């Protein structure tokens, strides 16, 4: 299945819980965009150390954009990333909500007539 496994050194439930918690943190996608440090955790994002809840549609778009940081992702690709699909207006609405959830700024850039991209920091 391609899923890496973790195993604690001691066979106790506390050791297992600690190992899983430590491992999951290292597997969280992290990136810098728009002058902010962002880490994705489930249905939330940690932006510059602040926990921010993100709705499912904006989170799906953020994950699609984070999969190829800096690359322009077309509206069509983003529509297919939305839960349940949708149309271009659904993408625009979700991008607006994503920007609000991340605290504004220039994390997500609009590329006219092409799509959107993360403003990755070099």
Features of this protein?
122 residues, alpha+beta, Arc Repressor Mutant, subunit A, four-stranded antiparallel beta sheet, three-stranded antiparallel beta sheet, 39% helix, 23% strand, elongated
Short description:
This protein has helices spanning 13-27, 56-66, 75-81, 88-101, and strands at 30-33, 36-41, 44-47, 50-53, 73-74, 108-111, 115-118. It is an alpha+beta fold.
CATH third-level topology: Arc Repressor Mutant, subunit A
What is the overall shape? elongated
Kindly state the mean pLDDT as a whole number?
A: 87
| The first-level CATH class name | Mainly Alpha
Q: Quote the distance from N terminus to C terminus.
A: 34 Å
Cα gyration radius (Å)? 17 Å
- Considering DSSP H and I runs of 4 or more, what fraction of the residues is helical? 25-40%
Number of helices: 4
CATH architecture label name = Orthogonal Bundle
Number of domains: 1
CATH superfamily: Winged helix-like DNA-binding domain superfamily/Winged helix DNA-binding domain
- The computed structural class is alpha+beta
Strand residue content: 15-25%
What does the main sheet amount to?
4 strands, antiparallel
